[in-house]
Design brief:
Shape: extended
Largest sheet: 6 strands, mixed
Low-confidence stretches: 1-25, 389-448, 463-468, 579-624, 626-636
Number of strands: 18
Distance between the termini: 56 Å
Number of helices: 35
CATH architecture of one domain: Sandwich
CATH class of one domain: Mainly Beta
CATH topology of one domain: Jelly Rolls
Helix content: 25-40%
Mean pLDDT: 83
Length: 1021
């Protein structure tokens, strides 16, 4: 069969009777009337897809379409001749096409050609243009755009809805929860006096609500294909809920959408990535991972990359790019080569469909972060007490000024000599190993200071009374514990009196020459030969022998050596007068005296720790802690008092840090590991074709040539002012959430097959205003829309509105919309007064029917949550791809295997059965009945209260009569079967008070159950 678009014999069009073609005095619009016909009927064979294109003719391109048209004359145009032919060999579309052109479609094409065949590019690919302002300061721009079309259609716009409807509508739209009765009453009273001001105050209250982020994050999770499992056959668990919490917080704090975009697509590639920005990239780790044995990791890695391309183009561009994975797009100007150029942006991430899901980011949940903050504070508080003691210690240096006196008890440490005295600091050492020592070793010693002095050099260790001086008494003696490791030339003890410049009282051991003192006098008195190397010795000097007379004020003591290595155990004073404390070696001198050049003083590990003090590394804590615990008397005393608290706080800190979960995130491959990207023939990873490089499709504005071709560049391009789609797509999505249908009905398709915008100028005005004036603020966009009269209209529909505009595309009235699955459940829990306000954290397991998870491969069970986790908001419910939460699935929630831009609403009997029988709704009904009976057992009053709480309005007399009749009938049923009443109350987890009648309570619970199932309750009016 010949199926070529070629000229036919002259007069062929005469075979078509003009009476079959409806007449129109208007020129058909190319975008709204002509292009949809071409796209639907012609492009499958004459469109962008080269694989299915006939005779290389593209009717989606201006030059080729006009090449088969004689503008101004349809009868002489080859295109019209073929579509109007009655010869099956010539007629287009051919007889085997899915659907033939209707007479009306042929007429539209004829009139368009006769009128000159004006061509227009597809509206969505043209940058939005700010419409001329046709409103004054008293008019809302949205209302001007909407009412212009309403008036043109011959309709009239409805007035505002009642105050009761408005507060419920706005509350459900902005925070996803109904208002409580007290707030409704207050709003009605205030609205009656000052409607405009009261409305604006309510808007601000809800935008600032703690529940705002949860409502809008819930909608975003469909786009992100968020789930708590990996998908595919095994559908194993995945810790990605911290990303969900990040999204909630982003909406709560009104993170601008351009930043919201960049962080989720490329938060790891920004200039200064942090934990939050890296966590944001988990958006694209919601892709499925196949844990099944025997699968090819590369196959499913490629599948994940494909999913990222498709999701990105759907969420931000509203395009069905996935149609070009295996071949050129059949309708939109997206080639397969261009598809894989987009693919290359996402082909350079580290993840590779591994069971480990690496790369991972360890993240604490918000609750755990608060716990960690508390633990940090407790540790800091306990540590501060010790720090105060350290700050109180004056530098023990001969040049240091005396400090104020302070009484301290004398502390001595009993035990045998340490086995490794030279090991002064060993990591975070807080205990000292003791071993058996020689019989002559002293029983009571102090902590050891090791000091080495290179040959020919002198070193001192200063044991100074840093907090007070002492007055020498008759019979004073100084005791020194020491062990010579390498013999010095000599070693001596020096004593300083009141004059800080005078160190003229010395006793020495060994031989040598001295720069100070006169040998044989009190300024330099020989005490004996050097002690034996390797043994601990106890040395004693009589104070009077070196000139320390009774009554003299001693301000410092130092141990000095010439060369060698000595371990000094400390100096003690033996006196006939009471002593307050031992001399000690201060931490300040320890660091300040030797911190800059400690190489000759300590072994390498200690040297490293000292040097780190001035560099502020973690070793500072190690060394200072050791000092406080091992040397400082005051520090030890305070440590004893604080140690238990400190240990508990540090233990808690470690426990909280261990609560961190590993979240899969995006990470870019190193430059040397970047993959070579190829077109995949037929979309198969086993059939790589020509290599491609990251780029943007030609029908869209080009990416910045100076930018690196990575995810960050792509993210910035998506939110650049030049991109014609991103802002339009998002404001349209928000509009759909508020009105039930987007200005473009097909949220998922802004391409040539998608619906045209009902109000294109309004869409462009919203998109440009949101970018240019509102700074991509989500809350500001909502504020603009809900302050319009269009948003506040009543939903009452007249017969004329139904006839002229059955789908309410003109928005002459509000559209009644069935609530999404999450809001149906959350509203029921809120009306029942049992909804938990708890935010964030791991997903929970509310009641669901037994056996739902038994069909899942890996055998995991649904462990029902207890306490408030049973009744938290629905976006916290554990979401399993192979077995989603049944009640939400019944209300059209997706499985989230892939991105879902739009939920198609259904109405089925199963939905009513869920609300009447699901345990969650039974408990909510019990909660509503219990609240309604509070303060009185009057059933009539209780039913009125329950109705008002459920609907936000008073019941009419007729409605109340119907409910009372049902009450009487149900009461009789329970009176005949009291056991069933008790069983029903138990199913609602309702424990009655002594004054409450179980028959009445169970009856009211049935009424509450019915109220939750009312169309008025399940629908946003």
């Amino acid at each position: 069969m010949v199926q070529l678009l070629i000229p036919t014999v002259a007069g062929l069009s005469l075979l078509i009777s003009s009476s079959l073609l409806p007449e129109s005095i208007d020129t058909p619009d190319f975008t709204s009337e002509v292009r949809p016909i071409l796209s639907r009927q012609c492009l499958p064979c004459h469109g962008p897809d080269a694989a299915t294109r006939k005779k290389d003719l593209r009717l989606d391109m201006k030059d080729q379409l006009l090449g088969v048209i004689d503008a101004g004359s349809a009868e002489s145009s080859p295109l019209f001749q073929r579509i109007s032919s009655e010869d099956p060999e010539l007629r287009m579309p051919p007889p085997d096409h899915a659907k033939a052109l209707s007479n009306q479609e042929i007429s539209i094409l004829k009139q368009w050609i006769d009128a000159g065949a004006a061509w227009e590019e597809h509206w969505a690919f043209i940058p939005p243009v700010m419409p001329a302002a046709e409103w004054n300061t008293q008019q809302h721009p949205i209302d001007v755009f909407i009412e212009k079309k309403i008036t043109a259609s011959g309709l009239s716009a409805n007035g505002p809805a009642s105050a009761e409807v408005l507060i419920r509508r706005l509350s459900l739209d902005l925070i996803g929860l109904p208002p409580d009765p007290e707030r409704v009453s207050r709003f009605i009273e205030e609205y009656s006096r000052a409607p405009a001001a009261t409305w604006k105050l309510l808007i601000e209250e809800l935008l600032a609500s703690e529940s705002f982020g949860e409502r809008w994050a819930s909608a975003w999770l469909d786009l992100a294909r968020y789930a708590d499992t990996k998908g595919y056959e095994q559908d194993g668990m995945r810790n990605i809920w911290p990303w969900r919490d990040w999204v909630i917080q982003a909406f709560d704090r009104d993170l601008p959408f351009d930043q919201f975009t960049i962080l989720q697509l490329a938060g790891d590639l920004i200039d200064t990535p942090n934990e939050s920005s890296r966590l944001a990239t988990a958006f694209h780790r919601n892709t499925m991972t196949n844990d099944e044995g025997g699968t090819q990791n590369e196959e499913f890695r490629v599948a994940a990359v494909v999913d990222r391309v498709n999701t990105t183009m759907l969420v931000w561009q509203g395009l069905t790019a996935g149609c070009a994975q295996c071949h050129d797009h059949k309708y939109d100007p997206l080639s397969q080569v261009e598809y894989y150029q987009l693919y290359d942006f996402f082909n350079q991430s580290e993840d590779a469909d591994l069971n480990s899901e690496a790369p991972l980011l360890k993240v604490l949940g918000n609750a755990e972060k608060l716990l960690l903050g508390d633990a940090h504070q407790q540790v800091e508080k306990a540590q501060e007490v010790l720090d105060q003691a350290a700050r109180a210690l004056v530098i023990s240096d001969p040049e240091a000024a005396p400090a104020e006196a302070g009484a301290l008890e004398e502390i001595a440490f009993s035990g045998k000599m340490p086995a490794l005295c030279q090991t002064q600091v060993d990591g975070k050492k807080s205990e000292w190993p003791w071993v058996q020592a020689p019989p002559d070793a002293p029983e009571e010693i102090h902590r050891v200071i090791r000091q080495s002095a290179p040959e020919g050099q002198t070193r001192q260790v200063f044991f100074e009374r840093s907090l007070h001086t002492h007055v020498a008494a008759q019979g004073d003696r100084y005791h020194i514990d020491a062990r010579i490791v390498e013999p010095p030339e000599w070693m001596l003890l020096q004593v300083r009196l009141a004059d800080p410049t005078v160190w003229e009282h010395r006793g020495y051991w060994g031989t040598g020459t001295f720069a100070h003192g006169v040998d044989g006098t009190e300024s330099l008195l020989f005490q004996g030969e050097l002690p034996t190397t390797g043994d601990w010795v106890h040395l004693v000097i009589d104070a009077e022998s070196i000139g320390i007379e009774s009554g003299k004020i001693v301000t410092g003591i130092a141990m000095t050596q010439q060369g060698g290595v000595i371990e000094w155990g400390g100096v003690r004073r033996e006196s006939s007068q009471p002593t307050e404390r031992d001399d000690l070696f201060s931490f300040s001198a320890f660091v300040d005296r030797w911190g800059e050049d400690p190489s000759d003083l300590f072994e390498p590990r200690i040297r490293q720790a000292i040097g780190a003090i001035h560099n502020k590394t973690d070793d500072e804590f190690d060394l200072e802690t050791w000092w406080k615990q091992q040397i400082s008397i005051e520090g030890r005393r305070l440590l004893i008092a604080q140690q238990q608290l400190l240990d508990q706080a540090m233990k808690r800190q470690v426990e909280v840090e261990a609560m961190a979960v590993s979240v899969p995130v995006m990470a870019q491959l190193a430059t040397e590991k970047l993959r070579s990207t190829h077109l995949l023939r037929r979309g198969s990873y086993l059939s790589p074709g020509d290599p491609v490089a990251a780029d943007i499709p030609q029908f869209l504005p080009a990416i910045d040539e100076a930018s690196a071709r990575n995810r960050l560049a792509l993210a910035r391009w998506l939110v650049s002012p030049r991109n014609p789609l991103t802002a339009r797509v998002h404001v349209n999505r928000v509009w759909e959430q508020l009105f039930g249908t987007g200005l473009v009905e097909t949220l998922e398709d802004f391409g040539t097959q998608g619906a045209l915008p009902s109000h294109p100028q309004l869409l462009d005005w919203l998109a440009l205003t949101w970018q240019q004036e509102d700074g991509w603020s989500h809350k500001e966009l909502l504020r603009r829309i809900v302050t319009s009269d269009t948003y506040r209209r009543s939903s009452r529909r007249t017969p004329l509105q139904q006839r002229i505009d059955p789908d309410n595309r003109l928005l002459s009235h509000a559209t009644r919309v069935r609530l999404p699955a999450e809001l149906v459940r959350d509203q029921a829990l809120a009306i029942g007064g049992i909804l938990s306000p708890k935010k964030f954290g791991p997903s929970v397991y509310p009641p669901q029917p037994d056996g739902v998870w038994q069909v899942v491969y890996n055998g995991s069970g649904w462990k029902e949550s207890q306490g408030e986790d049973r009744v938290r908001r629905s976006l916290y419910t554990f979401f399993r791809r192979t077995a989603p939460y049944p009640s939400m699935l019944t209300f059209d929630a997706p499985t989230r295997d892939v991105c879902t831009p739009r939920r198609i609403r259904t109405n089925t009997p199963l939905q009513a059965l869920v609300v009447l029988n699901d345990p969650v709704y039974i408990e909510a009904a019990a909660g509503l009945a219990r609240w309604s009976l509070a303060g009185s057992n009057d059933l009539t009053r209780a039913i009125q209260r329950a109705f008002q709480r459920a609907t936000c309005r008073q019941a009419t007399p007729q409605e109340l009569k119907l409910l009372m009749d049902l009450t009487d009938q149900q009461k009789q049923v329970f009176q005949l079967d009291p056991a069933s009443a008790h069983s029903f109350l138990e199913s609602g987890r309702w424990t009655l008070e002594e004054s409450q009648n179980p028959i009445d309570a169970a009856t009211l619970m049935v009424i509450a159950n019915v109220l939750l199932n009312l169309d008025e309750v399940l629908v946003r009016g």
